[in-house]
Design goal:
Layout: E1 6-15, E2 21-31, E3 36-40, H1 47-54, E4 62-67, E5 70-71, H2 77-87, E6 88-91, H3 103-109, H4 119-135, H5 151-163, E7 169-173, H6 181-196, E8 200-204, H7 208-211, E9 216-221, E10 224-230
Parallel strand pairs: 3-8, 3-9, 6-7, 7-8
Antiparallel strand pairs: 1-2, 1-4, 4-5, 9-10
Bound molecules: adenosine-5'-diphosphate (ADP).
Length: 231
Amino acid sequence: MSAPLVEFRRVGLTYPGPPPVTALAPCDLAVDPGDYVTVTGPSGSGKSTFLNIAGLLDAPTTGRYLLDGVDTGPLADGDRTALRGRRIGFVFQSFHLLPHRSAAENVALALLYTAARGRRAAAERRERAREALVRVGLGHRADALPSRLSGGERQRVAIARALVGRPALLLCDEPTGNLDTATARSVLTLLDDLHAQGLTLLLITHDPQVAARGRRTVAIRDGMLREVGAG
Ligand code: ADP
């Protein structure tokens, strides 16, 4: 048995207020390497809070969060950032691409703060960006500006950017929220493929059809997280 990649032990977050708001009540969750977990819940239920904690963007106010066996609570800011950079890729509803940079440059920029510097390093970043774009089916559009790409292609670039650092965990926040149904389906198929290749996925969605793509679904309501089913 391998250790969980993500392990919440009575993890919760209360904003101090006043008045204090418990955005996430203390909860347990274990996500094994290679799992695909979807997280559902209405607006205001605590999904972003959950994702921010899982993504090491926010620290819980109670409990312990272990990422890949590392207790993240005692980590200094720089170490948290480094761990996040090494282990986690993010995909958001909005693609957040730089408009005046090509697809390949947008992807390569994600490596700027993690990889070595220098001319050889720049060439390696470009090469890895192209590989990541090939992986999402966009090798032929590497030089295109985002304005020349469709919504689905832009989200693929964003996924390539999330993958280029070779994360173990991909955190997706409503990744199909800005896409039409057919395009959304193809992006979800891409995520299925990445999961089949061994990537661990945590995906937030309010759409039950999207949630059904996961192997497991957890629901959050009023800050309470509970497992609702395995696919
Ligand atoms: P969701 O992503 O499901 O819409 P959130 O995690 O953003 O939900 O919010 C959960 C709860 O925490 C909501 O009641 C929200 O109003 C509250 N909340 C979020 N951020 C803050 C904050 N910075 N200060 C106080 N309350 C907050």
